[in-house]
Amino acid sequence: MNKNKQDKFDLIVIGGGSGGVRAARIASLHGAKVALCEKDRMGGTCVIRGCIPKKLLFYSSQFQNDFLYSESYGWSAKQIRYNFNKMIKNKNKEIDRLENIYESNIKNSGVTIFKGNATFVNKNQIKINGEIIKGNKIIIACGGTPVSLEIPGSNLMDDSDKIMNLKRFPKSLTIVGAGYIAIEFAFIFANLGTKVNLVVRKNILRGFDDSLVEEIRKNLISKKVKIFFDSQVEEIKKHKSNLKIHLKNKKFVSEKVLAAIGRQPNIKNLNIGKIGINLNSSGAIKVNAKLQTNISNIYAIGDVTDRINLTPVAIAEGHSLADRLFSSKKRDVDLSYVGSAVFSSPPICSIGLTEVEAYKRYKRVDVYESKFNSLKYSIVKNKNSTYIKLLVNNKNDRIIGAHMLGEEAPEIIQIIGVAINAKATFKNFVNTMAIHPTVAEEFVTFKEPIRRNY
Residue 294: which domain range? Predict the structure, then answer.
């Protein structure tokens, strides 16, 4: 612990995740005296138990496909074995490295770190490890935590935090959920050879473009993931060395069960009810456009506000807020076009409106669409299709949405996001010379819309 004898600060940040660390560092660099409270590991959800370790597991799972495809390219790969424990060990080593970087950076910026559970005493005082510290301004940046499934036997389930630190590779896994976390782990473990069941209440990937959802459904089935639509788990019981999952009209056995039904703001132990911070209907902290709560000196950023729960959004909010509070810079965060990715197999990525949303908002929408097998798969038996879609507002030719399924999707859509934010038109796209042969050239070689809503 890096303590300072003085217990009064210009700013107290609660939460050492990406957003909280950015806010603390920028405020300190502006000359503010800053304290940061963290009860667990520095780096938060993304670095310790979310984006980074999950992406490493995603990479690990993709090698099976690479080995399979390599034979068509003249390689002979024999006696291939997978060491799950080695992968987990290397993943944890990288997480430790990143955690140390986060902690070093925050210390080097002059921020005082307090390790422990922080709770509000009043609107200016925080209690941590029996000590009370005072702050003129406070930022809540505690992130999220997995939602538990309230059923008999729920204690036998793993959540998205625990599943990345299994001691043994599971031969079978049942995943309860339909969002991006559930889908990503379904593909990861299916690619690694686990028999995967997916229990879905209604449909998968709510909020994503319908065309992408359909492609993901087909790819799950091709990976032999058994999907139980319109189903709910009613009970889980021990069954020898496995677990028995009870649905309404079906029972089956699985070695492990993962609850991936969403995340909720991690604010249970903050004692915010005592000082009267307003929450919204979903139990998240309510903020205005300036990220301010109903208590004027207290702010909230990132997943605790449950708006757009993405690490880059939390970082941007933390940076912008610190600038506004402790400098002359008044830069707001524009959330109009925020890209999102699901690291399925292959990944999907979107920015802007879905096709359904576009039809509701604009009277004249042109839909450009393409599904194809890239050159990489031209000589491979097991094809892996790419799907792309561009949505164009016919009134002014502006690109209003881009969606893609394919190995390169997150990298390509990231750059298309720049074009959309720059108010690029469809004409800008088709007037751009293609780089051939690439997957990305499909975005600049469209000729006619495949459908319209007028």
Answer: 8-145+264-326
CB 303 within 8 A of CB 263: yes
Place 449 in a pLDDT band, splitting at 50, 70 and 90: very high
360 and 420 belong to one structural domain: yes
Q: b or e along 268-285 (b: 16 or more beta carbons within 10 Å of the residue's beta carbon)?
A: eebebeebebebeeeebb
- Identify whether 3 is part of a domain: no
Taking alpha carbons only, the member of 104, 96, 105, 107 closest to residue 3 is: 107
30, 239, 319, 436: the active-site residue: 436
Q: Using one digit for the tens of pLDDT, what is the confidence trace for 328-371?
A: 998 889 998 999 999 999 999 999 999 999 999 999 999 999 99
Q: Which runs of consecutive H residues, i.e. helices, occur in 347-408? A: 355-361
Q: Residue 243's domain is classified under what CATH number?
A: 3.50.50.60
pTM: 0.94
Asked if 319 is an active-site residue, the reply is no
Q: d(Cα 11, Cα 34) in Å, to the nearest integer?
A: 5
How many CA atoms does the CB half-sphere of 202 hold within 13 Å? 4
pLDDT in tens, 62-92: 998 899 899 999 998 788 899 999 999 999 9
